[in-house]
Every structure is written in structure tokens, then in C-alpha cells.
Amino acid sequence: MNPPLINRPDRVSRLRHTVLGFITAVLWAFYAYLWVPLLTLVAWLLGIHTVYQRLYLEQNAVDPFILASLPIIALICALLLIGWAEYNRVRFANADERRRRGDVKEAAVDEKLGAGHELGEVLRHHRVVSVTLDEHAVPIAVHVLQT
Questions:
Q1: 33 & 53 share domain
Q2: pTM recorded for the entire structure
């Protein structure tokens, strides 16, 4: 049986995380690039190439409605985006001054878990534990694996 996979991203340095993310992005881009010839063939077979030729290359006409409407649509989108951002900036400007939720009592957490006070104490004060549950998923025992 394989040991459990332990993921500790907090122990990976920022530089290593950035480099691995960059390498992953480059490899995904290369993988997508490998699919381009097949996608081109499928598009050509479906007639997209012919449609493009007939609409844009043979007519050489520009639709005045598109020329007039696209900048207006872009302006409306920009105003909506800026308006939404300003609304959220004003709404959350004093987020630190808002009323915070009260702390939950340890006894209430133990009660919700269905665990006794002793089990709750063990769970709170140890990093790695193994929890034994009964048939109703109520903790009945805790074994400390690492302090």
C-alpha cells in the first residue's frame, strides 16, 4: 500500500513555485500548439475556411453598422466594469472597521463534532492525529501521530 500523499506548499520557496508555474504554463502552451494542425484541418473540413474566404476576402466590404456599434459596445462594457469596480471599492472601503463575528467557543465546536471535551482538546493541541469514527461518523477515539 502506498503511503498517503503529503502536500506542503508552505515549504516550497516562492522562487521555486514561480519557476515551476512558469514551466507548467510553457508546457501547456506547447501542448496546445501541437493540436493546431488538427484543429485547422477540422475547421477546414467543416467549411470555416470557405466561409471566411467568401465573407471577408471576396467581398472586401466593411459593414458600417459594425464600425459604429463596436466602439459603443466597448465603451458600455468599460463603463460597466469601471462602475462595478468603483461600487465594490466604496462598499468594501472600510472592511476592517466592520463588525467582526464573535469567536466560537471550544465547547460549541466539540458539541457540533459530537466529540467529548477530551477529544476536542487532543484535536486542538496536536498537529497530526488519527480519528476513529463510529457508524454515525461521530469521533470516538483520537490517536496522536505527531505532536
A1: yes
A2: 0.32
